UniProtKB/TrEMBL annotation:
InterPro entries: Aldolase_TIM, Thiazole_synthase_ThiG, ThiG. Its EC number is 2.8.1.10. Catalyzes the rearrangement of 1-deoxy-D-xylulose 5-phosphate (DXP) to produce the thiazole phosphate moiety of thiamine. Sulfur is provided by the thiocarboxylate moiety of the carrier protein ThiS. In vitro, sulfur can be provided by H(2)S. Pathway: Cofactor biosynthesis; thiamine diphosphate biosynthesis. SUPFAM superfamilies: ThiG-like (SSF110399). Keywords: Cytoplasm, Schiff base, Thiamine biosynthesis, Transferase. It comes from Cytobacillus firmus (Bacillus firmus). It is found in: Cytoplasm. Homotetramer. Forms heterodimers with either ThiH or ThiS. This is Thiazole synthase. One of its GO terms (molecular function) is thiazole synthase activity.
Length: 255
């Protein structure tokens, strides 16, 4: 089970809901992923406009926990305002805190992220901050009281995969809260590697929604994350410099 604050989830795949070609493909992909958590940008939804199209209407919300995010915020004040709006709408008390500090790379602003997380924690939110793969920053967010930390694999939507596996492994080794790898995952191999490095889960969107077949990719990501987690728990063999025969040399019939 993946435990985040008071919540427990069977799936370790957290799925975004944007960029799908249409609502039907989105629904089929969500179902194929078997995710328990759906994330979405509050600023990109008309949550108080009944006459506006809403992806939530296409899904059985009894099956999922919603994870609103503060995408579009560039300051702590904006992120806090978006989080409060989400909570007021009755969607969820979990929030993915996303404060962007660079419009070109869409990398997070560490100072504003910490400020926003601190305010929202004081207000009783279940806080999951999106951050860079900075080892010290991840630890600081955990010490602040965040319920999970979400380091990026690479820039949002880039599909570059994990560009700094050493830092990611340092983060997972030291953490006592769930580490959810978020952003930059491009293929099932990337998702499996994140789990093999010790991540507790993976959040992705574009890798599925922009695939040629989003439904098949959603299923592939589900299986990759399960395989990566099993591989991590099993413990991989050590790497060796030279070959090592897989059959014992002793007791051979012919010599």
């Amino acid at each position: 089970m993946l435990k985040i604050g008071p919540y427990e989830f069977n799936s370790r795949l957290l799925l975004g809901t944007g960029k799908y070609p249409n609502f039907d493909v989105q629904r089929e992909a969500v179902e194929a992923s078997e995710t328990d958590v759906l994330t979405f940008a509050v600023r990109r939804m008309n949550i108080f406009e009944a006459n506006q199209p809403n992806f939530l209407e296409k899904l059985d919300l009894q099956k999922y926990k919603l994870l609103p995010n503060t995408a579009g915020a560039s300051t702590a004040e904006e992120a806090v305002r978006i989080a409060r709006l989400s909570k007021a709408s009755g969607l969820c008390d979990m929030i993915k805190v996303e404060v962007i500090g660079c419009s070109k790379t869409l990398l997070p602003d560490p100072i504003e992220t910490i400020k926003a997380a601190e305010i929202l924690l004081d207000e009783g939110f279940i806080v999951l901050p999106y951050t860079s793969d900075d080892v010290v920053l991840a630890r600081k967010l955990e010490e602040l009281g965040c319920h999970a930390v979400m380091p990026c694999a690479s820039p949002i939507g880039s599909g570059q995969g994990i560009i700094n596996p050493i830092n990611l492994q340092f983060i997972t080794e030291q953490a006592t809260v769930p580490i959810i790898v978020d952003a930059g995952i491009g293929s099932p191999a990337d998702a499996a590697l994140a789990m093999e490095l010790g991540a507790d889960g993976v959040l992705l969107n574009t890798a599925v929604s922009s695939a040629d077949d989003p439904v098949k990719m959603a299923k592939a990501m589900k299986l990759a994350i399960e395989a990566g987690r099993l591989g991590y728990e099993a413990g991989r063999m050590p790497k060796k410099r030279y070959a090592s025969a897989s059959s014992p040399a002793e007791g051979m019939v012919f010599s």
